[in-house]
Specification:
Length: about 325
């Protein structure tokens, strides 16, 4: 008989085993240990064991669902209005027995009990409290199309796609950087500045990116002045065995509103690729919502190719 209960301190080894047996696709890290789960999940100040629900058969973990919450507009505390299904999985040998349905139902009950008026399946920017650097690649962006079982399962249970996020990669060891007159002009007029964190880091930044290796790259005028464009580079060490390469994620790209569409975003991505090439990084990954034309143009113009899609779902 299947038993359902909330997370206990002795569960991480079983959760790691389940993760690796579920074949979650190219966007899921492999070969990691309970330490990585502790770093990005259990040690978070907002982790609630009641939001992580396990299914067990004879004491063996055969399924799990993890529900949580994103940040409010100030990025200084949680917002409970929208609940998030951050992760779910059922062991291949136990699928189509109603276990996934029951897990999701219990997660929805937990979210509603904490005040959620809406439920979102799959994480998105600002609503990504867990699994940073373990699922999604550069960042958690919905459930990936290459995670083959997620889409049919969620649609069957009444969830509909609400947002699509493009996943792009570039082999930065290849030295064929884009060449364009505008890029040359920008490079002559600007300089790359590297720092350990954003100028004004918030609580949400410290809770997530502050826990993993990251650097902030900013492109600013050589004559001085505020940055024109910035991006955070995060190490994706847990993906080395998945992608067979040293890789980084590029997140939280920001271009000054008055300078958007002028090539600064593309120039920044090219300069970051050049810098990280010297560190023998092979793969850079970046995500962008499908509707963001400026971001998509900058990313593809910097030599990135779309390889996957993340989908965020909402209850119908």
């Amino acid at each position: 008989m299947v038993e359902y209960r909330s997370f206990l301190n002795g569960d991480p080894p079983q959760l790691v085993r389940l993760w690796h047996e579920c074949n979650l696709g190219r966007g899921a890290a492999k070969g990691f240990t309970p330490y990585e789960l502790e770093l990005v999940n259990f040690s978070q100040p907002y982790f609630d064991r009641h939001g992580l629900i396990l299914a067990l058969d004879g004491g063996k973990c055969i399924g799990m669902v993890h529900a949580g919450f994103g940040a409010d507009a100030s990025l200084s505390r949680l917002s409970y209005d929208v609940g998030i299904i951050c992760a779910f999985m059922v062991h291949p040998g136990y699928r189509r027995q109603g276990i996934g349905r029951e897990l999701l139902k219990r997660a929805e009950t937990y979210l509603h009990a904490n005040g959620s008026q809406e439920i979102q399946a799959g994480q998105s920017k600002g609503r990504d409290p867990f699994y940073f650097g373990l699922y999604g690649g550069a960042r958690p962006s919905g459930f990936l199309v290459t995670d083959n079982d997620a889409d049919p399962f969620l649609k069957k249970l009444g969830y509909e796609p609400s947002e699509r996020i493009g996943v792009y990669q570039r082999d930065i060891l290849q030295t064929n950087d884009p060449v364009h007159f505008k890029l040359i002009a920008i490079r002559r007029a600007t300089e790359l500045v590297i720092s350990d964190q954003p100028a004004l880091p918030c609580w949400w930044w410290f809770a997530r990116l502050g826990r993993i290796e990251s650097l902030r790259f900013s492109l600013g005028p050589k004559k001085g002045g505020p940055p024109i464009a910035s991006v955070t580079v995060v190490g994706l060490d847990a993906y080395v065995s998945t992608w067979n390469a040293r890789c980084i994620g590029l997140v939280d790209v920001d271009v000054s509103a008055s300078e958007r569409g002028k090539g600064y975003g593309r120039a920044l991505l090219v300069e970051v690729a050049r810098h990280m090439r010297q560190e023998l990084i092979s793969i850079a990954e970046i995500h962008a919502p499908e509707g963001n034309e400026h971001a998509t143009k900058a990313i593809t113009g910097a030599g990135f190719t779309r390889i996957d899609t993340g989908i965020v779902y909402r209850q119908a």
